[in-house]
Every structure is written in structure tokens, then in C-alpha cells.
Specification:
By secondary structure, this protein is of the alpha+beta class. It has 2 domains: 2-297, Aminopeptidase, CATH 3.40.630; 302-369, RNA polymerase II/Efflux pump adaptor protein, barrel-sandwich hybrid domain (OB fold (Dihydrolipoamide Acetyltransferase, E2P), Beta Barrel), CATH 2.40.50.100. The protein contains 9 helices and 20 strands. Strands 1-2-4-3-7-11-9-10-12 form a 9-stranded mixed beta sheet, sandwiched between helices. Strands 8, 13, 15, 18 and 20 form a 5-stranded antiparallel beta sheet that branches. A 4-stranded antiparallel beta sheet has the order 17-16-14-19, with no helix packed on it. Helix 1 packs across helix 9 (262-279) and helix 6 runs antiparallel to helix 9. The longest helix is centred in the middle third of the chain and has 20 residues, at 214-233. The protein is globular and about 70 Å long.
Length: 383
């Protein structure tokens, strides 16, 4: 294992933060898998999973079983980890700007067609060679767009470490939830075995959620670039210069914020290790894939349940449970008037996430149900 420190831009005199990446296997070996934990710094299950996965990777490396390259960031957001206010960790938004740590990542497809730096003349008839060309161009684009702030340098460093990976796993969690994954449809064939190994209760698909999040910046370039090339140079150019889906990237939601337990983390780390064997990154017999615990659904089909009034919030259905249209999911009780406001599902699916607050303000997003039929438009993720 090689340990590499990546200093971030100092935001103030006398301060300096850095990212630490752990590298397993031979640099440049394929396939390359990149994993990071807790980009939202108050979402801690991924850190404990990374701790256990690190031990498994070190043991595999000592046995000479690493065939590809694995880059692991056990702490992806030192800025957010330091944002403790009145004993509460505020790890989702940077306090200096109010920006979400998992938003505003590079528009690589646009950067790769900038005047004077277009990747188009460098492409040829071989898809594999084009993948290498595009990855090199992504690194060059990052060089052309250097960061100017600490948050910018965090995003920049994460992109530089991950943009040439074949598979990217961004480990998060929700408030209270069952395991679920967010990914783009072109990535699904590569990632469904992971969903099966983790026992995911929902796999949410969206070809661009509108949020410019970390995982979509890495997978999106591979389908966005052919679209832009077809618009500018015509479909014949794209047909003659094929571009494969060079990265399968996903946000893995490891249950809820309070699910920081060794038994869960050890099981998740074992599932991730089995997935690395499945991908051929680690040598070993192919793992038996369990039956899927869900079927993929469109993120645009997710029903976001909201509180119609303020009051005490109580749930009737646990995370991960099947829900039918018309089922009572939760209630909001007005403690003064005694009025009870029911929160009822209008779609069938899985209640894959719910809030950890038990005092609801009006309009609070109290739960999410994976529905089969798309009906939402515009940005599909919350702030």
C-alpha cells in the first residue's frame, strides 16, 4: 500500500488541510477502481467500511492477488469534518459558501471541446484507444482549470484521482435508509452485481440528475461527449470514432447516519471485496451473485413524501419495506390541536429512505419511495 498526501489550498493564514489516498496494486494497472468515503462529512458509515476494506486489500496485496489498481480515500472531505458547530457536525454544505460538497463538479464534456483544446481531432476508429485519449484529455482539462479556493481544490483533487478509473464508488448514507444506489443507465450493467452483493433495496437510475454531482461528472462525460460531437460534427463522425462508457460510477448509500456498526461495515467491506474479485481487480474465484433484492427504477419515478403541517413525526413503515399505493407511511401530529395529518404513498415501491428528525416543519421531506413510472422533471436530487 502506498500512502499519498494531497495538500489543499489554504483558505486562511495558519491553516492547511490535505487529502490522503491509499493506493493498492500497480499504478496504471487495469482495471482501476476508485472508492471514497464521506464526501458528505457527516455521513460516516463509509469511513468504517473503508477501514475494514483497507485491511482486506492489504491482506490481498500481501498475497500477491492485486491484478488491477485500487485507490481508496477513507476521508474524502477534511473541510466538512472540521465544521463542528455547537457539537453538531455540518458536513453537507461548506459554511464559507453554502455550497454542497457533492455538487458543482467539472462539465468534462464541454471542457473537452473547448476552442484550441478539442479532443475530436485526437479520436480514431478504435474505442479502447479513444478511452485512453479522453482520459488524458480530462487530466489536461483539469490543468487548464486550476482551482482558486480550498473547496475548489478538494473537488479538483478528487477528480484528478478518479477521472481515469474504470469503476468509481462514492460511499454515502441517508438519514435513515436501506442500502440503495444512484447511477446512470449506461453504468447499470457494470454496477448491478454490486447492488446484488450489497443487498440493495433500490437502484435509482437517471441520465443526468441535474445536480452536477461527483459520480455523474465521471460517468456523464462518456455519453455526453458523443452527443455534443454529433451535434457539432454530425452522427457519422461519432459512428467512425466510437466512444465506450469508460467509467461506471455510482453513489452508494450505506443505510442511515446512525448505522455505524462493525457488523454492518464488515459485511459491506466483504461485499465490496467480492465485487473487486468480480471485476478482476483482485484475483480469486468469481463470487456467486445473490438474487437482486430490488429491480432498477427511474429516479424520476421516486415519490418524495412531504409533511403538510408542522408537528410530531411518527413513522408506520421502516426503511427498506415494500409500500403499496394508499399505504399509510407516517403521521404528523399537532401537539396542541391534536390534529393528525396522514402521509400516504401514492406510488408502489420501496421506502428506501426517510428522515431522522421527529419534529416536522411544514414541507419537510419525510421519505422517498422508489416508483416504476417517471413523473418528476427538473433537478431530481435535494439540495
Amino acid at each position: 500500500m502506498q500512502v499519498v498526501e494531497h495538500p489543499l489550498i489554504s483558505q486562511a493564514i495558519g491553516t492547511q488541510r490535505c487529502l490522503t489516498s491509499l493506493h493498492f496494486g500497480q499504478a496504471g494497472a487495469a482495471p482501476k477502481v476508485y472508492l471514497q468515503a464521506s464526501l458528505h462529512a457527516d455521513e460516516l458509515p463509509g469511513m468504517l467500511v473503508a477501514h475494514h476494506l483497507r485491511g482486506l486489500l492489504q491482506a490481498a496485496e500481501a498475497r500477491g492477488e492485486l491484478r488491477g489498481e485500487v485507490v481508496l480515500l477513507p476521508v474524502a472531505n477534511p473541510i466538512g469534518l472540521d465544521q463542528t458547530v455547537l457539537h453538531s457536525q455540518l458536513g453537507r454544505f461548506e459554511l464559507a459558501t453554502g455550497e454542497n460538497f457533492n455538487r458543482q463538479y467539472p462539465p468534462f464534456a464541454q471542457w473537452l471541446l473547448e476552442d484550441g483544446h478539442s479532443v475530436a481531432p485526437l479520436l480514431g476508429p478504435d474505442a479502447q484507444a479513444n478511452t485512453a485519449t479522453i482520459r488524458a484529455a480530462m487530466h489536461a482539462a483539469l490543468d487548464r482549470h486550476p482551482p482558486t479556493t480550498e473547496l475548489g481544490s478538494l473537488r479538483h483533487t478528487l477528480m484528478r484521482l478518479a477521472c481515469d478509473a474504470d469503476v468509481v464508488l462514492d460511499l454515502h448514507c441517508d438519514f435513515e435508509a436501506a442500502v440503495h444506489l444512484y447511477t446512470e443507465p449506461p453504468c447499470a450493467p457494470t454496477l448491478l452485481p454490486l447492488a446484488a452483493l450489497l443487498g440493495a433495496r433500490a437502484v435509482l437510475l437517471a441520465q443526468g440528475s441535474g445536480a452536477m454531482c461527483f459520480d455523474e461528472a465521471l460517468s456523464g462525460v462518456w455519453w455526453q461527449l458523443p452527443q455534443l460531437l454529433a451535434e457539432r460534427l454530425g452522427p457519422d463522425f461519432v459512428a467512425q470514432h466510437p466512444i465506450a462508457q469508460g467509467c461506471a460510477s455510482t453513489t452508494v448509500e450505506l443505510r442511515g447516519q446512525a448505522d455505524v456498526r462493525h457488523d454492518l461495515a464488515q459485511a459491506d467491506a466483504a461485499a465490496l471485496m467480492a465485487y473487486l474479485v468480480h471485476l478482476g481487480v483482485v484475483a480469486g474465484p468469481a463470487p456467486a451473485l445473490p438474487a437482486m433484492a430490488c429491480h432498477p427504477t427511474p429516479l424520476a419515478g421516486t415519490e418524495v413524501l412531504k409533511a403538510a403541517q408542522s408537528g410530531v413525526l411518527t413513522y408506520r413503515i421502516p426503511p427498506g419495506a415494500d409500500v403499496a399505493a394508499g399505504d399509510l407511511v407516517a403521521e404528523v401530529i399537532h401537539p396542541v390541536t391534536g390534529h393528525t395529518s396522514p402521509i400516504v404513498a401514492s406510488v408502489g415501491g420501496v421506502l428506501y429512505a426517510r428522515h431522522n428528525l421527529r419534529w416536522a416543519t411544514t414541507g419537510l421531506e419525510v421519505g422517498k419511495i422508489s416508483g416504476d413510472t417517471p413523473f418528476r422533471t427538473g433537478p431530481l436530487l435535494s439540495a
